[in-house]
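Could you join me in thinking about how sequence relates to backbone shape in a protein? To get us started, please write out a protein record for me. Would you write everything just below, so we can both look at the same thing?
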Amino acid sequence: MDHYSIGKDDTDTYSYNIASSIAYHRNMTNKSCRALIFSGDHDLVVPHLGTERWVHSLNLTLERSRWAPWFVHQEVAGYGIKFSHENYSLTFATVKGAGHAAPEYKPEECLAMVERWLAHTPL
């Protein structure tokens, strides 16, 4: 909604015709699938707190009651939390020290995160 509140009009190449995508994401929670959402904890474009707020708006069940650290080379690489709804699960992870393009800032950590998620192992 930011572009509406600051009076941004459509451009020649882009039309602001979707006020929010939350309804589309809520619809995905009724599917049998898994999702991985991650944010660099130094992201000033889309801060992880905003992403966390968006994830909580999906009204999923919290599987773990607290954020858990995940490690690469025995060092904290970020923190993760997991949500679910029926056959849908969402893992939300932060990447420590990463900015908006987390894999650009922390490629080894992001690769480890994705490999673990694909292998169904905890971050």
User: Anything to note?
Assistant: The CA atoms of residues 36 and 118 lie 9 Å apart. Helices lie at 2-5, 22-28, 48-56, 102-105, 107-118.
